[in-house]
C-alpha cells in the first residue's frame, strides 16, 4: 500500500474494523516513513459470470434496478429494495466462492421478492423463468398457494401464533 503523502510503500496497520455486516474491512494505517495516517477499505470482490461467459463485478444497484421494474406501480419502498439487494448479496456470498453465475443471483432474488410483494414476484418470475402462456402463471400461482398452505401448517408458524 503506497502512502498518499510520500508515496513510500511501507505502512503499518493501527486499527482494523469490519463494516457492512463483515463484508468490508476498514484499516487505519500509518506510513513508517513520513508518519502520515490514512484509511484503506478492503472488500472481497464478487464476480458475476453472465450467460454469455463475460464477467463483471456484482452490483447491488443492478439487483435493485431489475427488481424495481417488477415492483413498478406497487407499494414497495426504496429501503425495502435496498434490504432485498443486501439479502441477495449475502445469500450469494454465503456459498463461499468468489464467482457466482447470473442465474444464481436470479434464484437468490425469488424468495425474498415473494416475501416482499407477490405481484412483483410473479412479474419477475415471468421474465426470469421465461413464462410463455397464462398456464405458466397459473402453475406458478398454484405453487405459491401450496407453499403458503404448507407454511401455515408448519410447527414454526403455530409457535409464532401463540
Termini separation (Å)? 56 Å
- Following the backbone from N to C, one meets helices and strands in this order, namely EEEEEHHEHHHH
Query: In angstroms, what is the radius of gyration?
Result: 22 Å
Could you describe the largest sheet, including whether it forms a barrel?
Answer: 3 strands, antiparallel
**Widest beta sheet: strand line-up:** 1-2-3
Mean pLDDT over the full residue set:
91
Number of beta strands: 6
Number of alpha- plus pi-helical segments: 6
3D shape: elongated
The parts where pLDDT drops under 50 for at least 5 residues are 157-162
Structural class: alpha+beta
Helix content: 40-55%
Provide the β-strand percentage band. Answer: 15-25%
Explain the overall architecture:
This protein is an alpha+beta fold and 162 residues long. 49% of the residues lie in helices and 20% in strands. It has six helices and six strands, in the order βββββααβαααα. The strands form two sheets. A three-stranded antiparallel beta sheet has the order 1-2-3, with no helix packed on it. It has a three-stranded mixed beta sheet with strand order 5-4-6. The radius of gyration is 22 Å and the shape is elongated. The N and C termini lie far apart (56 Å). 14% of the residues are buried. The model is unreliable at 157-162 (pLDDT under 50).
Amino acid at each position: 500500500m503506497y502512502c498518499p503523502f510520500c508515496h513510500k510503500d511501507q505502512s503499518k496497520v493501527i486499527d482494523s474494523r469490519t463494516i457492512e455486516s463483515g463484508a468490508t474491512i476498514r484499516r487505519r494505517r500509518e506510513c513508517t516513513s513520513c508518519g502520515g495516517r490514512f484509511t484503506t477499505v478492503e472488500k472481497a470482490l464478487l464476480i458475476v459470470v453472465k450467460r454469455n461467459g463475460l464477467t463483471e463485478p456484482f452490483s447491488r444497484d443492478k439487483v435493485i434496478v431489475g427488481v424495481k421494474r417488477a415492483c413498478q406501480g406497487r407499494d414497495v419502498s426504496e429501503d425495502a429494495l435496498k434490504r432485498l439487494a443486501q439479502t441477495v448479496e449475502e445469500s450469494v456470498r454465503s456459498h463461499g466462492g468468489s464467482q457466482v453465475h447470473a442465474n444464481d443471483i436470479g434464484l437468490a432474488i425469488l424468495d425474498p421478492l415473494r416475501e416482499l410483494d407477490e405481484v412483483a414476484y410473479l412479474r419477475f418470475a415471468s421474465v426470469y423463468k421465461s413464462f410463455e402462456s397464462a398456464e405458466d402463471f397459473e402453475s406458478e400461482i398454484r405453487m405459491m398457494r401450496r407453499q403458503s398452505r404448507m407454511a401455515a401448517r408448519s410447527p414454526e408458524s403455530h409457535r409464532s401464533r401463540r
